[in-house]
Sequence to fold (314 residues):
Amino acid sequence: MNSQDKPGNFVTLLQTAKVEILGNGSQKVMARLLFDSGSQKSFVRCDLKQALKLKTIRKEKLLIYTFSKRQPEERIYEVVALKINSQFPPYQSINIEALASDEITGADIYANINPRLIQSILPASCLISDSYEKTNHRIQILLGADYLYNAMSGEARKIQKNLYLQPTLFGDTLIGQIFDPEDMKQMCALHVSSNAIQNDLKSLWEIDSFLMPNESPEMKPSDTLCNFGKELTITNNRYECPLQWKSPKMRETLGNNFEVAKMRFANLEKRFKHDESLFDRYNAVMKEQIQAGIIEMCSDECFIGYVMPHREVL
Fold:
């Protein structure tokens, strides 16, 4: 399979243009415009409206349908009038009315596009409407179907398999897919990173990851099983078996965790003071287990051993 046929190696270009916006008086601002035939109305960002001191000429109530939503959302927008000029001679322009919105799109639509890749495929006489550079200029104007075709100045021309050049009053615009070899390299890097994570997850469950090798110089698994059988005794009709230490030294180095268990039980007592019903149920379970011989009272003598901390589970 040819790598250029893989969908992941293509970047989709939207139809955009850099334009000059004129407001009331002498105010003018360079802005990025998005052509969108899927929108019935044209929109302008509120910050651009304020910068140009555009006056509200009326208000309109719209029903906004968004993706995956069956029910529309009702919104009221201020309507402003503005003039859009081309940055290329003969500096053609159109006058439009647009709805003021706080945001058109929060996405940086050209974050992953290399401008030099765009320049390499353009015809020599092309006046490209957008630089496709990563700038702070987000989409500030959306030219909807109400004015979009007033800005078209010629027929679209196919320059690649899935890429078209569309002349407009504001310059030549690109729309469609373009092959990006750098995108393929990024995908390979991500694939390698993913494999590394999978290997780490696999090794996490290996016995060696828990410092428990299959062969230990001090004690083998077969020795542990033999000791378990030998040390199992019956005392007062109960089975008893000591803890299985990995090495004899661990028993002395482990020490006594009685104070840790005591501290946790002190925290349990605090919860009992705030919930008497919890204490009554806990106390009843403890008495029942003592009578059944499941647990027994511990002596006050300090010893080297392991005291199991516990929480109430009722």
In short: The longest helix spans residues 181-204.
